[in-house]
């Protein structure tokens, strides 16, 4: 286990470069096995989820090589293997091997995925989609076994009960090689879905409408990667640094962003009083000033992302007056960070899954634990704001999705160290 040790209270300034999107990367790596030729991904973030997916690829004899920000994946000698347990549990996105193996081999055996502890995370919509394509899905001993009929999968119209990112991506991967047309209605519209569709279309898939709520897929025989694919910037990492800059920044320029992907987030933080200048692919956040309290309700893209409700919380704590409210409609139980923030002196509580926040003039460093990735990001910002030393246990959760975080924070002037936790 890792821990992050922060000596807070230092104003941060300078430049930070955002990495490739975790939630694209973790779909594109499994999707790579749909290609009959080697795949090159550029702009890949250095995060633990990538290491774990590479280990899963090697279980199928798929060789991968990650150097700087380029990941090469060679699926030419792939062998169809069950992925029942082990690394599967280390991340959520391992469930994309269900759709990818189904699209490539017409069958899959994949253990029930792990991922962040943010409340119930059912996968009924993924299964409904696979079944609509003609697959038989069984849930046995914590493993999902999926088999296509002898004649292969066929296209279908699938109406998702909610715009699930995972179900949309999984159904796309399973249906790109199915016979005929598949339509996904009430599809998720996140930018990462468009990234997946672009990647697959460049390999010969026919996917139209990604980024809208109706996606149409015409099945093709097989896919072949021909050109490298550059992953979109991570809008959640960018939002995390914007929040940090708004709380304790002394002028921070955030590079490699797509501003449009952050529209609802930027509207909210600007309404709070964070002053931002945008240029083509970077944002300059002016030194932290007086902030107004606000109310936030998360929703699917293009709404305010659930993955940013925790990273934005320190900004609300920094407001001068009033009561702030955060309601996470996607994951109402995503509240594990609250108790940890209270240990640091934050005036924050939860009532009926509604987070209530009051201005907190000073946080103090103490020992806290990152129950999941974005709780970790929230505590990291709180630790940078706090007086004294903050020790964040379970910092592995931060490393799951924050690219080169120690290096980036140090470049901004932070006193931060990630180390192995001592045995207790
Ligand atoms: C790897 C990845 O991309 N993870 C993201 C993805 O997770 P993930 O794809 O798992 O999240 P979904 O979009 O599927 O979930 C959205 C909502 O739908 C519900 N649901 C989902 C599927 C299903 O079959 N049944 C069901 O009830 C979930 O419980 C949740 O309330 O989107 C989430 C919501 O933006 C983000 O927090 C995660 O960072
Ligand atoms: C919930 C998240 O990740 P995952 O779906 O990979 O657990 C996240 O990135 O905030």
Automatic annotation (TrEMBL):
Phosphoenolpyruvate binds at residues 22-23. It comes from the Bacteria. It catalyses: phosphoenolpyruvate + UDP-N-acetyl-alpha-D-glucosamine = UDP-N-acetyl-3-O-(1-carboxyvinyl)-alpha-D-glucosamine + phosphate. Pathway: Cell wall biogenesis; peptidoglycan biosynthesis. Residues 7-409 form the Enolpyruvate transferase domain. Keywords: Cell cycle, Cell division, Cell shape, Cell wall biogenesis/degradation, Cytoplasm, Peptidoglycan synthesis, Transferase. Its EC number is 2.5.1.7. UDP-N-acetyl-alpha-D-glucosamine binds at residues 92, 121-125, 307, 330. Belongs to the EPSP synthase family. MurA subfamily. This is UDP-N-acetylglucosamine 1-carboxyvinyltransferase. It comes from Lactobacillus melliventris.
